[in-house]
Amino acid sequence: NAGVTQTPKFQVLKTGQSMTLQCAQDMNHEYMSWYRQDPGMGLRLIHYSVGAGITDQGEVPNGYNVSRSTTEDFPLRLLSAAPSQTSVYFCASSYSTGGRGEQYFGPGTRLTVT
Amino acid sequence: GESVGLHLPTLSVQEGDNSIINCAYSNSASDYFIWYKQESGKGPQFIIDIRSNMDKRQGQRVTVLLNKTVKHLSLQIAATQPGDSAVYFCAENPRRVTGRRALTFGSGTRLQVQP
Fold first, then answer.
1. Interface test with B, best of A36, A44, A68, A100 (most B CBs within 10 A)
2. Which residue of A has its CA nearest to B32?
């Protein structure tokens, strides 16, 4: 199993550009989530999903959209990039849909917005 | 809002010693807690978790202690090794308050193991 994969690994955007961060998992997990991690800080939840067709907002959802059309994929869209969105983005998946239990994290996408 | 925090941002220990990483949580309604380890340039990895109906849980070389009276969580690592050098995060599930099926993470403690 590949586990949780994220693409791209690095990305540089100009202010106002849009892009999609890809996340896929092959463990048949119902629960998937997106976090951002700023330097010297913990992870903050952006959006999460407890199954295909179901998404919900986390702590910091503004400026980001998600969709969950399949169990395997959970893309994160930045609508109009801002310098404040410079961060490392992690996708995670879990068998448990209650926000408990082990979450498996991808390797991260390092995004810089200039 | 309520949050999970850590007392020590950096902890330096000698190889072979025991390490104790502390975490204070403010949401008394949280019923689930978890520790993650993050090595440089990688995503977090699960270490151990504990439910609020327990005071202690042991894993391989790690023990998590939960003191609900003072809202305190700790991670003990026995015989610390160089490979334990990383940032450690505690997280809680305050679903009863937030309604979200999600974790709230603390800001992390860096563990440095001196040879």
1. A100
2. A100
A23, A103, A104, best to mutate vs chain B, most B CBs in 10 Å:
A103
Q: Kindly state the average pLDDT of the residues A46-51.
A: 95
CB atoms A107 and B103 under 8 Å: no
Instruction: Note whether A7 and A107 are within 8 A (CB).
Output: no
Are the beta carbons of A23 and A35 closer than 8 angstroms?
Answer: no
First-to-last C-alpha distance (Å) of chain B: 40
The minimal CB distance from A99 to the residues B41, B93, B106 is found for B93
B101 touches chain A (CB under 8 A): yes
pLDDT digits (tens, 9 = 90+) for B21-78: 999 987 888 889 999 999 998 999 999 999 999 999 999 999 999 999 999 999 999 9
Residue A1 has pLDDT above 80, yes or no: no
> For every residue of chain B, which 3-state class applies, written as one string?
CCCEECCCCEEEEECCCCEEEEEEECCCCCCEEEEEEECCCCCCEEEEEEECCCCEEECCCEEEEEECCCCEEEEEECCCCHHHCEEEEEEECCHHHHCCCCCEECCCEEEEEEC
The helix (H) or strand (E) run that includes residue A21 is: strand A19-25
Q: How far is A16 from chain B (nearest CA, A)?
A: 27
